[in-house]
Design brief:
The complex is a heterodimer of chains A (about 190) and B (about 200). Chain A is mainly α. Chain A has three domains: about 100 residues, no CATH class; about 40 residues, no CATH class; about 45 residues, no CATH class. In chain A, helix 1 packs across helix 4. Chain B contains seven helices and no strands. In chain B, helix 1 packs across helix 4, helix 2 crosses helix 5 and helix 6 runs antiparallel to helix 7. Classes of the chains: A mainly alpha (about 190), B mainly alpha (about 200).
Chain lengths: ~190, ~200
Amino acid sequence: MIYLELILAFLQVGCFSFGGAYAAIPLIRDVVLSYGWLNDETLTYMIAVSESTPGPIMVNLATYVGSSQAGILGAALATTAVVFPSFVIILLVSAALNRVVKNPYVQAVLRGLKPCIAGIILATGLFMTIKNCLPVGEGSQLDLRGLVLTVILAVVMFVVKTKDKKRISPIGLIILAAVLGMIVYGC
Amino acid sequence: MRETCVGKEKTVRKDLIELLFTFSKIGLFTFGGGYAMISVIEDICVEKKGWITHDEMMNVTVIAESTPGPIAINCATFVGQKKAGWKGALAATLGVVLPSFVVICIISMFLDNFLEIKVIADAFRGIKLAVGILIIDAAVKMIKKMKGKRRPKVIMGGAFVAMLLINLFSWKFSSISLMLIAGAVSLMLFALEDKKQQKGGDRA
């Protein structure tokens, strides 16, 4: 039965997708191909759509696969299944978090993890930004309009302040980028 | 007595609705998933609403990275649970998922060649650039608020260089392994220092 299969498949994905969406894509691919739901080409297209629409990529992808296999109910079941494991884990962890975090050994581990994450995120952001407009890494090419747009967006984000010394909000930056993208790439 | 009870119920319901709406907004405006979301969530939940502190946000990020599932879901569940218990967690998680769900259902049912519509493709090219900058922003905020002296900076720098190389040369080495190493090294140093201090203490 397709509904049960969707639930089982995406529960499995939700349980083992450590390290964000890109780590989950191979898992989803494996599941989707082994059930014979989609071929590689359709999946690649769905991944591209999931990357460009709002929300977590994994959730988008689960909704998309579910919907393509069994309509809205399928989408709802696949989405619920993919979210369920993290939901339960965080609920359990956050109940115990304050107690656990006070432990000196846990503190010591966290002191290592936090700067490490900051470094990973900085490298990821920098690499993505560079890859978007310069020919660095696999499959990227020089995009002059993108380069100009990136510089504008970076200045708006990090330098420009309003009268009451506030920076633009991330949501504001996204909207600005969408509008500028339509203008710059449109003409 | 009964009135206060009703009043309490009302504020709980208000909290739940606020969580649902706020996280719908977060879900609707976060593209590129994961790290880009941290910037949006920090802006709204830490700076504007004051629901959690920066330190807590940092802890959730660490937990989110070391537990399965999308960071946005982890953050939503955590903030919701902190604000209004498990009902709050449910409201926030539902909120963050809802926009994706609706958007994808519409696309999958009505728009076959969604990405080939020129205006949409152009807008997304722009958004993609902004996502990179938002990720940098999330990192800059973390680094600015990093306490302590040399060691965190060394770990940060090391992780930065390693991750950049991993990305650049598409090495098969996950960020989780990097985190495991950093956590283990930090724990070992702590254990060593602890021992040294105990010895010093004995002598004194």
